[in-house]
Each structure stands twice: as C-alpha cells, then as structure tokens.
Design a protein that fits this description.
alpha/beta, Double Stranded RNA Binding Domain, Arc Repressor Mutant, subunit A, 2 domains, two-stranded parallel sheet, 6 helices, transferase, MethylDNA_cys_MeTrfase_AS, methyltransferase, DNA damage, methylated-DNA-[protein]-cysteine S-methyltransferase activity
Length: 179
C-alpha cells in the first residue's frame, strides 16, 4: 500500500458446534469464544447446519472441540429436566431491545407461560407486542432462553421458530416435571 500500512484481513470467527438427539428432536449447540451463541431445534442435522451457516455467514463452523459436546449434553439435560439449573455463558447477539426481551424471558418460571402483552407490560412498553414477538423469533438460543413459554393472549400456541410441535413438546415436558 502507498502509505506503508499493511491491510489486515480479519480472522474469521470460529463457532464450535455439536448436534445430538433430544426428546424434541435434533439439537444443535454452537459456541463462540464468548459463550453459547446458538441452540437450534429441528428434524434434521442438515437443516440445523444450514441455519447455523446462514445465521453466522462469516464464521468458520467447526464440528466438535472446545468442550462443545459437554455443553450439548447439558442442553439436552435441560430438555429432559427443565428444572435443572445450569449456568451457561451466553453470547447474545441482538439489539438492546431484543436483549431486554430475552432477559425478561429468562424470568418466566419453568412450567409457566405468559403472553406477548405480559412481556410488553413488564418492559413498560405496552405497544410493543409485535416487536416482542419478533424478538422471540430472533432468539438464537432455544430452550436456555425460553421463548417457548410465550403464547398468544387467547392461550393458543403459535409462532415458534423451531416449529409449533417443538414448542408444544417443550411445554408438555415442563408441565409433566411439575406434576
């Protein structure tokens, strides 16, 4: 370069991932250097890999390593036993508003549900119901950030990024654990 500086090519971020089977189907857990950045649920491992690569297009996704299989086991254990308290480092990537919503979701007790307007009220933003739903849909960390516990005001289960069947199964498991 004319000014004597060298162009620095940024290193690609590495995301270590593992895929396993849970009571609600396949689970992918992805972890960056900062913590868990993805927990995806789906019917096929291939579908989950496509989601990971789409969500993190510049990252190098590495199968295994860095204890990711242990993290995957802990996430699957949470699906088996939703009351299990596991402290994870999370790499939350979203707007400040989305992060506020996700924090509010973490406060919903196991086995309970709330509606989108309840979250909007909690955040002192009653007009933000659709934005709350969008933030739930943008949540990359299923199960750990329990967006599956948010339902419509009429009690209907709808709008889950990983499929309504998965949402129903997670809620059913939670209720059974409390019975």
């Amino acid at each position: 370069m004319a000014n004597g500086l060298q162009a620095i090519t940024p290193e690609f971020e590495q995301i270590h991932f593992a895929i396993g089977i849970s009571p609600v189907g396949n689970v992918l857990v992805g972890e960056s250097a900062n913590g868990i950045c993805a927990v995806y649920l789906g019917k096929s491992a291939k579908e989950l890999m496509v989601c990971l690569q789409k969500q993190f297009p510049t990252a190098k996704c590495v199968d295994g390593g860095n204890g990711i299989k242990n993290t995957l086991s802990k996430v699957i254990e949470i699906i088996h036993n939703p009351q299990k308290n596991t402290d994870f480092n999370l790499d939350l990537r979203g707007t400040p508003f989305q992060q506020q919503v996700w924090q509010a979701l973490l406060e919903i007790p196991v086995g309970s549900t709330v509606c989108y307007s309840d979250i909007a009220e909690k955040l002192h933003n009653p007009g933000a119901v659709r934005a709350i739903a969008s933030a739930c849909g943008a949540n990359n960390i299923a199960v750990i950030i329990p967006c599956h516990r948010v339902i419509r005001k009429d009690g209907a289960i709808s709008g889950y990024r990983w499929g309504v069947e998965s949402k129903q199964a997670l809620l059913r498991r939670e209720r059974l654990m409390l019975a």
